[in-house]
Design a protein that fits this description.
By secondary structure, this protein is an alpha+beta fold. It has 17 helices and 38 strands. It has 6 domains: about 5-105, Rossmann fold, CATH 3.40.50.20; about 110-130 and about 205-335, ATP-grasp fold, B domain (D-amino Acid Aminotransferase, Chain A, domain 1); about 130-200, ATP-grasp fold, A domain (Dna Ligase, domain 1), CATH 3.30.1490.20; about 335-455, D-amino Acid Aminotransferase, Chain A, domain 1; about 460-545, no CATH class; about 560-625, RNA polymerase II/Efflux pump adaptor protein, barrel-sandwich hybrid domain (OB fold (Dihydrolipoamide Acetyltransferase, E2P), Beta Barrel). The strands form 9 sheets. Strands 14-13-10-11-12-15-22-20 form an 8-stranded antiparallel β-sheet, with helices on both faces.
Length: about 625
């Protein structure tokens, strides 16, 4: 067994690995970028080493610096977590060449599954069912269009080196294929440095069900399935294990197929075989097909741990140290049901745009597992994935576990940045999801209802007003003649000001808001960052106290600026000063989270100034392009 391991990652997964390593008695080494110098994973590790600048290419993707850090600190093995270098076979080769152990599969196994087209040919040869499609090397547009027509509409264009929905487009008719192909190839080239694509039959009511496998290089077992069908834009939102409505014969068939896949490449460590399932006629053993294999630990691995009682990170470390599989297949069983919800800093009403900000407050309820890499006071950086935490619950049945999830989300408290917490809570209460009738299109079908941003109730506003007076508990009554103590208060939320009258008598404080006299409810209230944060059913309502002596300054933006909707990298600029543009014309392309976003002109006008160049890193709200001020027309 190792004495010390280095974690080549950051955030919640680094903290997760450190927790298991410490329980096993192993010393840990963290690596960090300049942006992460004070991060939680750095504080938890026994040692830490700085490896470069905030951009991943300058730090967490620098395999040479990571290996040097392991050698300098005496670490014997490197755990890659997920993302970054976790599925880079060249990094595995370099780790082993340095005399260190890579806690994960061999470079050969990673290469075998690294390209989706080659992986599907390999799996077909191993007897694993694959989706009808074209996975060939001919990437000519005419040839791909012909193959799509042969497969039959609708089809799905997918980047062969893809993941996370990038480089993926659905096409329903022949006349749309060329534009979709160009778009998919462009995004794939940006995200992966490889614009090759494959074409697959699009499944009409798809469910995304994956099987956790684990191998020791000679044998393999499966740890049952996870249902990851609740997705938006091919990004997983809530995962669960086991899959709802899964027949025993189909579970056995999928498990056996997954184990065959792992054995076919001599797999070692934790891996996931992802299947697409046609649920249009229920779950059937002849309606699942191999999509891809993730040759690493998955983000959603905690739900498998919850239902099996297995610590997958411990298994990874033990097998990497030379031990055999800790359990046989007949020793593994499903116990209860588990859910995981991914809590992100993102602006849901604005289209789920990644957000940044300093966490003025962060708290999770008792009874739920929260895997997180941040704490109160930490900053959500524009450099990395904006995940705040994974909230995991486990119960004896799916119904009980779902109730636990709904309550855990309602009691989670986040202030200082916008989040998807309310969206997750709405999903947990969705009747179709509660019934187990899930597929990958559920969120898009009901998106408007799921993303509605609840306005603060009168009770929430009363709680904010009370907090603005500095009264969060029963106050001293003071003294007045003939009438109770009274005080006027005001708080602001955005442009809206709420005014109220606080009165104090023998029964305690009351707030009169818009003519209604209320006893302020006992809602959680936190004052941080100069704001009052009131938490209600998973939503965080933030108010600014209003000074009655203050006077609002006039002025503001003239409405002529195109602003960056999120932190990102300017990939292209299409206009120059003096150029006339029409409403809807492309002005620039912004890349955020490896996806491209086109910024367009909001009105007709003339470009006055271009404030950025391609390659510029910008913050949310930064002005990118200015139009000349509109002039009023003079009537004849």
């Amino acid at each position: 067994m190792f004495q010390k391991i280095l974690i080549a990652n950051r955030g919640e997964i680094a903290c997760r690995i450190i927790a298991t390593a410490r329980r096993m008695g192993l010393a840990t080494v963290a690596v960090y970028s300049e942006a992460d110098a004070h991060a939680r994973h750095v504080a938890l590790a026994d040692e830490s080493v700085a490896i470069g600048g905030p951009a991943p290419r300058d730090s967490y993707l620098r395999g040479d610096a990571i290996i040097a850090a392991a050698q300098a600190t005496g670490a014997q093995a490197i755990h890659p977590g997920y993302g970054f270098l976790s599925e880079n076979p060249d990094f595995v080769d370099a780790v082993e060449a340095a005399g260190l152990t890579f806690i994960g599969p061999s470079a050969k196994a990673i290469r075998a599954m690294g390209l989706k087209d080659a992986a599907k040919r390999l799996m077909s040869g191993a007897g694993v069912p694959v989706v009808p499609g074209y996975h060939g090397a001919d990437q000519q547009a005419d040839h791909l269009a012909a193959e799509a027509a042969r497969i039959g509409w609708p089809v799905l264009i997918k980047a062969v080196a893809g993941g996370g929905g990038k480089g993926m487009r659905k096409v329903t008719r022949a006349e749309d294929f060329a534009a979709a192909l160009d778009s998919a190839k462009g995004e794939a080239a940006t995200a992966f440095g490889n614009d090759a694509v494959l074409i697959e039959k699009y499944v009409e009511k798809p469910r995304h069900i994956e099987v956790q496998v684990f191998g020791d290089g000679s044998d393999a077992v499966h740890l049952f399935e996870r249902d990851c069908s609740l997705q938006r834009r091919h990004q997983k939102v809530i995962e669960e294990a086991p899959a709802p409505g899964m027949p025993a014969e189909m579970r056995a068939a999928m498990g056996e197929a997954a184990v065959r896949a792992a054995r076919a490449i001599g797999y070692k460590g934790a891996g996931t075989i992802e299947f697409i399932v046609d649920a249009s006629d229920g779950l059937r053993a002849d309606r699942f097909w191999f999509m891809e294999m993730n040759t690493r630990l998955q983000v959603e691995h905690p739900v498998t741990e919850a239902i099996t009682g297995v610590d997958l990170v411990e298994w990874q470390i033990r097998v990497a140290a030379g031990e055999a599989l800790p359990l046989r297949q007949d020793q593994l069983a499903i116990h209860g049901h588990a859910f995981e919800a991914r809590l992100y800093a993102e602006d849901v009403p604005a289209g789920f745009l990644p957000a940044t900000g300093t966490l003025a407050h962060l708290a999770f309820p008792e009874g739920a597992r929260a895997d997180t890499g941040v704490r109160t006071g930490d900053t959500i950086s524009p450099w990395y994935d904006p995940m705040i935490a994974k909230v995991i619950v486990h119960g004896p049945t799916r119904e009980v576990a779902l109730q636990q999830l709904s309550r855990a989300l309602a009691e989670t408290q986040v202030a200082g940045t916008v989040t998807n917490l309310g969206f997750l809570g709405a999903l947990a209460r969705h009747p179709g999801f509660a019934a187990g009738d899930v597929d990958t299109g559920l969120i898009e079908r009901d998106l408007d209802a799921l993303v509605s941003d609840p306005a603060p109730s009168a009770g929430v506003r009363a709680a904010a007003l009370l907090a603005s007076a500095g009264l969060t508990a029963r106050p001293a009554l003071g003294f007045t003649l003939w009438a109770p103590l009274a005080r006027r208060l005001a708080v602001r939320q955005g442009h809206e000001v709420t005014e109220g009258l606080l009165t104090l008598d023998a029964e305690g404080p009351r707030i009169t808001v818009e003519g209604e006299c209320l006893v302020p409810p006992a809602l959680p209230v936190v004052q941080a960052g100069g704001l009052i944060h009131v938490f209600d059913k998973g939503a965080c309502h933030s108010f600014a106290p209003v000074d009655p002596l203050a006077r609002e300054a006039s002025g503001g933006a003239a409405g002529n600026a195109t602003l960056s909707p999120m932190p990102g990298l300017v990939k292209a600029v299409f206009v120059a000063p003096g150029q006339a543009v029409a409403a809807g014309d492309r002005l620039a392309i912004l890349e955020a989270m490896k996806m491209e976003h086109t910024l367009t002109a909001a009105r007709d006008g003339v470009v006055a100034e271009v404030l950025v160049t391609p390659g510029t890193q910008v913050e949310a709200g930064a002005a990118l392009i200015l139009l000349e001020a509109e002039t009023a027309e003079v009537a004849a």
